[in-house]
């Protein structure tokens, strides 16, 4: 991998996670006037329009198998993941959901191990995962072991990162088709929105335009739609194509750390010693997982390149 290209991949991942880690603030503000489903629908609908304006050309696939990758990615990464997460938040504690969803890198690594080449599980990744998960638990429960479990809600919370792992693997495969990144992301959004339509009749939808005249609502909705959806899905998908799904997914560990910092900065929520310890462990675990796994992955890629070159020379 080219060094400059690799650096760009890490920068894209960092920018994406910085924005995703602060989205809960906007969501919390919007929940006063919007339902969870309405927020989801509007953010991806506006995001789709933005991506269309940036790249209006159609993305044409060659076979139904290629088209099925986009359909599945839209179902998993746009519709199912966010709907499952929102339902889980309504059934169980937010701290439980925050901790459970943050294990997405582990599910992603397992999926990649079996379905992608050059994305094998490594011991350093597992060590980093254990440290990061310990830190995330400390952050999520804030030093308090409140085990008020809701089996259905917690099970759904486990299902959400598994669905995201499938989406990550699908986007890695889509990146190999060499479509324009913005166009490919827009196509995924299109199918995600299609899968949301049946939910309108179940969750409820209120076409009340007065809510959009509130500048605070409009600003936060645009932040979610343009920043967290249109821009971040493009940057994340690009990072996945550069770094691979396992290395990129490690950055998800950082979301709870960023959320805590944003809570203190914007909502003036206190930071406890347990939170600080959790943030430290999460950072160390993320570093170990990304650094060691990245080195091993680059070493394997160099071996593959040398092997290919040797076989070509013998011919």
Automatic annotation (TrEMBL):
Protein topology in the membrane: Multi-pass membrane protein
CC per GO annotation: plasma membrane
Protein localization: Cell membrane
PANTHER family named among the record's database cross-references: INNER MEMBRANE TRANSPORTER, S-ADENOSYLMETHIONINE_S-ADENOSYLHOMOCYSTEINE TRANSPORTER
Family to which this protein belongs: Belongs to the EamA transporter family.
TM ranges: 12-31, 37-55, 67-84, 96-116, 123-143, 149-167, 188-206, 212-236, 243-265, 271-289
Protein species of origin: Paenibacillus sabinae T27
Keywords: Cell membrane, Membrane, Transmembrane, Transmembrane helix
Name of this protein: EamA domain-containing protein
